[in-house]
Amino acid sequence: MGNITLTRRTSQIEDPDLDDVDTPLMPEAGSPLNRTFKMTSKSLMLIDVQKCFSEGTWADRFGLDEVRQIREAYDRCVDVLRLTPHIPTLVTRTPFPGPDGELDERIKSITQERGIECLSKPGNSVLHAVGFVKWMEERIRNGSRIIVMGGNTTTSCVKTSSVAIARAFRAKGLQVVVDLSMCGARATNHKKRCPDCLESYEMDYEGPLCDACVDPAVGLQSPVEAAVKEMKKNGVTVVEKFKMW
Ligand SMILES: [Zn+2]
Question: Is 18 inside a domain boundary?
Fold first, then answer.
């Protein structure tokens, strides 16, 4: 019976519309059924789950309301880490100076307990982090077929890194899944806006939204929605919540 469940779960993950599918066949992580699957076919990666975004300088600059969803994403990352001690995991960090550069305290203590490696990532793409390609290739050699990603921020490093991994490792049979419940973005980046203001955001100009940003006729989209679209276009599977641990 376990095998049948496994086969059906695997076929679902390959469905590009997975995020629209409620996944009733999948046992919740931590359920007795799930514990029978000590699968090594998955890996987990958390991008830049650092204090900077939740309580540090960056967070202070924008204020608590702006970073609340990032804090919620960290809560979910902690839950997932606790539920998946059998899943090979990698964490990255951007080398911000001082306490900003440190991992979220709870995540840091789990990485220390379990000896989870934390790679320093110089730019937006994890592909440029020394040691990542070697880790990923080793995971694939050991049977990893799915890498589930979360972290910061949905519109920047998560997007860039997930697309880069999908491009680099697709030919080796790796599927990249971005779990939005573990991904953080500022409240402003969840707000829909007009195409012009979206373009300004993508050109790194952060200004107030214009009057057209409330007019549905112009086709409103938030930066997070645009990032999800781009990830999907590049072969990344994006789900609200990955349930197949
Ligand atoms: Zn606008």
Answer: no
Centroid of ligand 1 to alpha carbon of 192 (angstroms)? 9
Distance (Å) from CA 200 to ligand 1 centroid:
9
Q: 133 lies in a domain?
A: yes
The model's pTM is 0.83
- The residue among 151, 46, 50, 57 whose CA lies nearest residue 102 is 50
Q: Would you say residue 213 lies in a domain?
A: no
What is the helix, strand, coil percentage profile of the chain, to 5? 50, 15, 35
For the stretch 41-77, pLDDT in tens is 999 999 999 999 999 999 999 999 999 999 999 999 9
Condensed to tens digits (0 to 9), the pLDDT of residues 107-117 reads: 999 999 999 99
Task: Calculate how far, in angstroms, residue 165's C-alpha sits from the geometric centre of ligand 1.
Answer: 32
The rounded Å distance from CA 229 to ligand 1 centre is 19
Look up residue 52 and give its two tokens: 């900077």
What is the CA(214)–ligand 1 centre distance, in A? Answer: 8
Question: Would residue 121 count as lying in a domain?
Answer: yes
pLDDT digits (tens, 9 = 90+) for 229-245: 999 999 999 999 999 98
- Distance from the CA of 230 to the center of ligand 1, in angstroms? 20
Which phi and psi angles does 120 have, rounded to 5°? -85, 130
For residue 57, the domain's CATH number is 3.40.50.850
Domain extent at residue 54 = 30-184
SS3 23: coil
Instruction: Please give the tally of structural domains in the chain.
Output: 1
Q: Which residues of 207-225 are buried (b: 16+ CB within 10 A; e: fewer)?
A: eebeeebeeeeeebbbbbb
Tokens 């789990």 identify what position?
110
